[in-house]
Structure formats: C-alpha cells, structure tokens
Amino acid sequence: MPHVERGMAIGLFGGSFNPPHDGHLLVAEIALRRLGLDQLWWIVTPGNPLKSRSALPPLSHRLKLCEALVRDPRIKVTAFEQTLGTPYTAETLSFVKRRNPQVNFVWIMGADNLKSFHRWQHWRRIATTFPIAVIDRPGATLSYLSSKMARTFSRTRIDEDDAAVLWKKEPPAWTFIHGPRSSLSSTALREAAEG
C-alpha cells in the first residue's frame, strides 16, 4: 500500500482498468479536486468476480498502462490487492481500514457501477466501511436515483456542494458528483481493438 500519514484524506478508486483510459483519469481528477483529497489510490485489481477473467490481460500489463497514464503525483497506482487473496471489495476495504485506523478514506466509483452495486458481495458492508463518492459517467446520471444502493442509503446522501467534507463523515455517507464526463469506456475500447 502507498505510504500515508495520520489524518490524511485518501480516495480509493478500484477496478480492472482493462484498459485504463482518460475517462478513468477524469474520475480520479474530479475526486481529488471536489473531495479535497491528499491522495488517490488507483487500485488495479487482479480480477472482477462479476466479469469474465478469461479475457483479462495480466495484472502487470494493466498496471504499466495505468502508470503511463497518470501524471499527478497525488495519484498512487497500486496492485496491493493481489497479495490479499480476495477479489472482493468489501474484504479489501476492511483490510485497508484495519491497517490504517488514523487515516480518512473515501471509496470512489463511477456512476456506471452504481446500477449493479447491489450485486457486489457484501455491498451494504462496503457502504458502512467508508463514505462513498459516486462520480457522474455518461448514460448513468439518473442511476443514482433508481439504484438499490441509492434507495437503501437515501437518508445518508449528502449534497455534492458538501463533497469536500465527505471524508470527515461517519459511514454510511455518500454523495453524487456531477461534472465533466468522458464518453470513453474500457468495453468500447476493447471492442474497437478487436474489430
């Protein structure tokens, strides 16, 4: 895991990043700026239990692509999840919390993941481990209104104007952040490369 100091505000942005692209970078930059973070950990995961692993390029390749894309020194590209032996976000976040009890974390996710968030293993536990910032993505703006997560935790949603204090909130707490959106997607990039 990247080095942190007591009291820091850290964003956790995980995914398979297959491949990473400027849309991911935009989400990371928006999170850094709007949430007032000291760092953002770009967590390249070994695999996604909800997606096929057969077509997933090696972790080392995806890690190198992410490192080549990132320019901001506050963004720390890491693959520490590989050593945990679990592909599940809930387990990763529990580990991070145990190892860094004096650090303030926020889970960062694109709005496109909000629709299926309730299918993630122990999704309610994820929402009660760290505050969550959902960053707008094309075609997903309205998903925060209708998703099971948004309905379940509707009373703990804070206004995006207060996003800079989200990391100070006791979970469950979440916000939806509107802003510039990139139409890039890893799926579309893979399909274009194959076609």
UniProtKB/TrEMBL annotation:
Domain Cytidyltransferase-like: start-end pairs: 12-191
Keywords of the record: ATP-binding, NAD, Nucleotide-binding, Nucleotidyltransferase, Pyridine nucleotide biosynthesis, Transferase
Catalytic activity field: nicotinate beta-D-ribonucleotide + ATP + H(+) = deamido-NAD(+) + diphosphate
The UniProt record lists the keyword Nucleotide-binding: yes
Keyword Nucleotidyltransferase listed: yes
MF terms (GO), sorted A to Z: ATP binding; nicotinate-nucleotide adenylyltransferase activity
InterPro entries the UniProt entry points to: Cyt_trans-like, NadD/NMNAT, Rossmann-like_a/b/a_fold
Stretches that traverse the bilayer: none
Pathway membership: Cofactor biosynthesis; NAD(+) biosynthesis; deamido-NAD(+) from nicotinate D-ribonucleotide: step 1/1
Lineage top rank: taxon: Bacteria
Any matching Pfam family: CTP_transf_like
GO terms for biological process, alphabetical: NAD+ biosynthetic process
Function per UniProt: Catalyzes the reversible adenylation of nicotinate mononucleotide (NaMN) to nicotinic acid adenine dinucleotide (NaAD).
Family: Belongs to the NadD family.
Name under which the protein is recorded: Probable nicotinate-nucleotide adenylyltransferase
